[in-house]
Design a protein that fits this description.
7 helices, 5-stranded mixed β-barrel, alpha/beta
Length: 238
């Protein structure tokens, strides 16, 4: 049992599993722990970013909120990897659909993550980097979806720094390039994972369709995205 801590994660000696599921909302982490994990123990409450460790089908797994945006998830992902030895991070979140044929509650898998953020500039690369998900996790997710009778949409998503965009034409231009949906964290997660040599995956439930105007409620986003959770949890054993 380790007494290691960081300014943002203080497990008080509770072990953090090598696989961590990261919803944006800490209350969604609490919901997953209470409803899906066996013998969950809370390992973090710093800044109300709740984290829990338990087991799923006999495999240790942790679940922890990431907060909103690339700066927030990058802090927690970096510390989980470099301070606590995490090997797999699976972001489970909501996204806004940029394609008319994506319905509410459809599952989206981020094969890659475009971004309007300056986050990637820190790596000082001699070109444009394409943040990409772990093929090991993507392929395992597809197999799990077949077992559950789910047909996910796999492709490029947008990780944006901007929720309320002054440029009202931006979404249409991303959609024209075939981008499936928009969220705010995955490009940073994929870049950190690649730089650190671990596996990462972004998995989403469509919470609203930006084209049609359909949307779910905040309560549904916290507790009703059960298909996504049930697809992600078995990946802890991959």
């Amino acid at each position: 049992m380790s007494n290691k801590s960081t300014p943002h994660i203080n497990p008080h000696g509770v072990e953090i599993a090598e696989t961590v599921l990261m919803p944006g909302d800490p209350l969604r982490a609490k919901f997953i722990a209470e409803n899906y994990l066996e013998n969950p123990v809370q390992f973090n409450e710093v800044r109300n970013i709740l984290g829990f460790t338990g087991t799923f089908q006999g495999t240790p797994v942790s679940v922890m909120g990431s907060g909103m945006g690339m700066p927030s998830i990058s802090i927690y992902a970096w510390e989980l990897i470099h301070e606590f030895g995490v090997k797999k991070i699976i972001r489970i979140g909501s996204c806004g659909s940029l394609q008319e044929n994506l319905d509410l509650y459809d599952i989206v898998v981020a094969q890659s993550a475009s971004t309007d953020s300056n986050f990637l500039s820190q790596y000082n690369l001699p070109g444009t980097y394409a943040p990409t998900g772990s093929w090991k996790l993507i392929s395992a997710l597809i197999e799990q979806a077949k077992l559950q009778g789910v047909t996910p949409h796999v492709g490029n998503i947008l990780s944006s720094d901007i929720f309320y965009n002054a440029d009202e034409t931006a979404n249409a231009r991303w959609a024209r390039m075939g981008v499936l949906g928009v969220e705010m964290e995955t490009a940073a997660l994929y870049a950190i994972a690649a730089y650190s040599g671990i596996d990462a995956l972004g998995l989403f439930t469509v919470s609203d369709n930006i084209i049609t105007g359909e949307k779910t409620t905040a309560e549904e986003r916290q507790t009703a995205f059960t298909t996504m959770m049930e697809l992600a949890l078995p990946l802890a054993g991959v």
